[in-house]
């Protein structure tokens, strides 16, 4: 991992990845460390001052195979989106009082940890009923909730899990329940799922540790066997397509006491696992106030060249003259 930068690398949790994977914190080469510094310097030149810590830059670089130019474009696009979507303010202020009602038609929630210590994220795609949900909420608010939860995954969930595990954890274990998903249900949910997937891939890179697709309908495995030929081998190795006999494999990754009863575990949280938000991030020994919740210091008015708009303009000019 690149040498700590006191200006940006302000961590209060372990920062070494548990396994010696290329390009991961604690297991980088001098060449990769140099690319972190290059990317940081180029982003500083564009006026960026936030999210330039080493762990974040490494995630963007890994997502683009350590191509600095591509990672830079991805980062700039992400920052532009964050400003347009209002992400920094959203995580501080967003409230979702309709959550319990929405979850009746589309449960999606974080719940405890897997055997590697990572947060477990559960989504029951087969239950989704957008027509019913849009009587309760809006597509915009659903996406705002999604983004708020991604921000909370980054802080406080992953830092708390890292403290408890004694090692850096940057990803989650996702369980996607496809029970009830059929060809006829796909068109009605495609628009939302496409938007949600784009946000995940483009703005929150390298957050997937394992993905279990359970209750996969007939023929799904055959389709996936074709699709995976177009995916990165590293990504393919994270995905497990399982039918209705998924419990043994799922329990090999998630402790029974952490897995809701409906998926073969023994957990029965008071009030329901879907709304409990149980995990190390709720345990006083490991949880800390997220940095986004701390009062922001008043910053001096930025010069025009240091604004996000100016940064985007500079980047566009650089690409046009390249």
TrEMBL record:
Domain CRAL-TRIO: from-to ranges: 98-271
Domain of life assignment: Eukaryota
Listed name of the protein: Cytosolic factor, phosphatidylinositol/phosphatidylcholine transfer protein
Organism: Aspergillus brasiliensis
Organism classification: Eukaryota, Fungi, Dikarya, Ascomycota, Pezizomycotina
Region spans: Disordered: 1-34, 284-322
InterPro entries in UniProt: CRAL-TRIO_dom, CRAL-TRIO_dom_sf, CRAL/TRIO_N_dom, CRAL/TRIO_N_dom_sf, PI/PC_transfer
Chain intervals with Low complexity compositional bias: 287-310
Pfam families given in the database record: CRAL_TRIO, CRAL_TRIO_N
CDD domains: SEC14 (cd00170)
Biased composition (Basic and acidic residues): 311-322
């Amino acid at each position: 991992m690149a040498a700590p930068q006191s200006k940006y690398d302000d961590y209060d949790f372990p920062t070494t990845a548990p396994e010696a994977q290329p390009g991961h914190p604690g297991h980088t080469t001098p060449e990769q460390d140099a690319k972190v510094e290059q990317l940081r310097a180029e982003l500083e030149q564009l006026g960026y001052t936030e999210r330039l810590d080493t762990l974040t830059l490494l995630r963007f670089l890994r997502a683009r195979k350590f191509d600095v130019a591509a990672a830079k474009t991805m980062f700039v696009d992400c920052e532009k989106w964050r400003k347009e979507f209002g992400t920094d303010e959203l995580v501080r202020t967003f409230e979702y009082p309709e959550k319990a009602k929405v979850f009746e038609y589309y449960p999606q929630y974080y719940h405890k940890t897997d055997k590697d210590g990572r947060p477990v994220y559960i989504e029951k795609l087969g239950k989704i009923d957008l027509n019913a949900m849009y009587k309760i909420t809006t597509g915009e608010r659903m996406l705002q909730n999604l983004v708020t939860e991604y921000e909370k995954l980054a802080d406080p969930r992953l830092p708390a899990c890292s403290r408890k595990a004694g090692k850096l954890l940057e990803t989650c274990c996702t369980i996607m329940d496809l029970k009830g998903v059929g060809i006829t249900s796909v068109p009605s949910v495609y628009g939302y799922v496409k938007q949600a997937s784009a946000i995940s891939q483009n703005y929150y890179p390298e957050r997937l540790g394992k993905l279990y697709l359970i209750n996969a309908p007939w023929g799904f495995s055959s389709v996936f066997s074709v699709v995976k030929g177009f995916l990165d081998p590293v990504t393919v190795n994270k995905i497990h397509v399982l039918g209705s006999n998924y419990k043994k494999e799922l329990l090999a990754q998630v402790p029974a006491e952490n897995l809701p009863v409906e998926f073969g575990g023994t957990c029965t949280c008071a009030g329901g696992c879907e709304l409990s938000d149980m995990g190390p991030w709720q345990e006083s020994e490991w949880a800390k106030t997220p940095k986004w919740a701390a009062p922001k210091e008043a910053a001096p008015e930025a010069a025009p060249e240091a604004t996000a708009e100016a940064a985007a303009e500079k980047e566009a000019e650089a690409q046009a003259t390249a």
